[in-house]
Design goal:
By secondary structure, the chain is an alpha+beta fold. The protein has helices at about 35-40, 60-75, 85-95, 140-145, 170-185, 225-240, 250-255, 285-300, and strands at about 15-20, 20-25, 45, 50-55, 55-60, 105-110, 125-130, 145-155, 190, 200, 205-210, 215, 245, 260-265, 265-275, 275-280, 310. The structure holds pyridoxal-5'-phosphate.
C-alpha cells in the first residue's frame, strides 16, 4: 500500500471491522446488549499500532501481540476459533481495508452469549478486530510530560486475577485509579502492588532513570508484561544502557532523575511530576528523550537492528 494513503473514514461509522471472519461496516457490527462479556468484563483484548514507514504501513510487533492475545485466552480457558496465523492475517486485512497509513488496532475476543448466567465454561466466543486513526494518547503530554498521582487503590494481584492476561475486567482497577487521579487534577495514576512496590500506570508500564541506569518494576509487582516495555529494554541495552528489572519503592520514583511511561498507546510519555513532586528538573530528561527518539526510529522502520519487529501490510 502506498505510504501516503490516508484514511478515508470520517468517524467510526465508515470504518471496516472484522467480525468472525467477515469485514463489516462499523455500524453493522453489532452484538446483543446482554452479551456476556459486556455484562461481566469477560473479554480479552490486544492493542497494537501500525506506523507509516518509507516501505508502507507496518504493524509493530504483530506476532508478540497475537501471542499475548492467545495467552490471555488460554489463561481464561477461552476457546479462540482462530489460529495465531489466521488472527495475524485478519489484522493485516483490517489495516489494509481501511487504507490507514498509521493506526491503533484493537482485537477483542468475547463470549458471544446473551444470557444472565456468569458461567462461561465452553461458551461460544467471537472475535472482532477494529483499526482506527489514533494520535498521541496523552496529546501534548507526550512532548512536555504528564503529572501523575500515586493511587490509593492497589494494582490487582495475581492471587485475585491473572495480571498477565489482558482481560477487560482487569481494567476496572485501572479506571477507578485513573478517575481518582483525574478528580484530583492529575493526568494519570500510578498504581502500587499489593506489597507496596511501584507497579504501573493505568495502561502503561513505568521506567525511571537514576545515575543513568534504567530501572523498571519486575513481574513480581504484578504488572502487565508490556510489549513496549520489552522493546524499550532491548533498545536501551542496544545503546549500552544498563537496565535493572527489580522492585521499586515509591520514594525512588520521587527522587528519580527521570521517569516515563511506555505502552502501545502511550508510546513513550515523560512523567515530570508525581504527587506534586518534580521529577528531576520537572522537564522530560535526556535519556527519556533519547529512548523516545530511538523508539520512533524503530517503529517507523528507520532502525535496521530491529527491522524484524515490523510486519508490512
Ligand atoms: C495495564 C497495562 N500495562 C501496560 C501496558 C503496556 O503494554 P504494551 O506495551 O504491550 O502495550 C498496557 C497496554 O496495553 C496495559 O493495559
Amino acid at each position: 500500500m502506498p505510504a501516503r494513503v490516508r484514511s478515508r473514514a470520517n468517524g467510526k461509522g465508515n470504518l471496516k471491522v472484522w467480525l468472525d471472519g467477515k469485514l463489516k461496516k462499523y455500524s453493522d457490527a453489532k452484538v446483543p446488549i446482554l452479551t456476556h462479556s459486556m455484562q461481566y468484563g469477560s473479554g480479552i483484548f490486544e492493542g497494537m499500532r501500525a506506523y507509516e514507514t518509507k516501505g508502507g504501513t507496518a504493524i509493530f510487533r504483530l506476532d508478540d501481540h497475537v501471542q499475548r492475545f492467545q495467552r490471555s485466552a488460554k489463561i481464561y480457558s477461552m476457546r479462540l476459533n482462530y489460529t495465531g496465523k489466521e488472527l495475524s492475517k485478519a489484522i493485516v486485512q483490517v489495516v489494509k481495508a481501511n487504507r490507514l497509513a498509521s493506526c491503533y488496532i484493537r482485537p477483542f475476543a468475547f463470549y458471544n452469549r446473551d444470557s444472565i448466567g456468569v458461567g462461561a465454561w465452553n461458551a461460544p466466543t467471537s472475535v472482532f478486530i477494529a483499526a482506527m486513526p489514533f494520535g498521541a494518547y496523552y496529546g501534548a503530554g507526550k512532548e512536555r510530560g504528564i503529572r501523575c498521582k500515586i493511587s490509593s487503590w492497589r494494582r490487582i494481584n495475581s492471587g485475585i486475577l491473572p495480571v498477565e492476561a489482558k482481560a477487560s475486567g482487569n481494567y476496572i482497577n485501572s479506571i477507578i485509579a485513573n478517575n481518582e487521579a483525574k478528580a484530583s487534577g492529575f493526568d494519570e495514576t500510578i498504581l502500587l502492588s499489593l506489597d507496596g512496590y511501584v507497579a504501573e500506570g493505568a495502561a502503561e508500564n513505568i521506567f525511571l532513570v537514576k545515575y543513568s541506569h534504567l530501572i523498571t518494576p519486575s513481574a513480581s509487582a504484578d504488572i502487565l508484561m508490556g510489549v513496549t516495555r520489552d522493546s524499550i529494554i532491548k533498545i536501551a541495552e542496544s545503546i549500552g544502557l544498563i537496565v535493572e528489572e527489580r522492585e521499586v519503592h515509591k520514594e525512588e520514583l520521587y527522587s528519580a532523575d527521570e521517569a516515563f511511561f511506555c505502552g502501545t498507546a502511550a508510546e513513550i510519555t515523560p512523567v515530570v511530576n508525581i504527587d506534586g513532586i518534580r521529577i528531576g528538573n520537572g522537564k522530560p530528561g535526556p535519556i527519556t528523550k533519547l529512548l523516545s527518539q530511538k523508539y520512533t526510529e524503530v517503529v517507523t522502520g528507520q532502525n535496521k537492528e530491529f527491522a524484524d519487529w515490523l510486519t508490512y501490510v
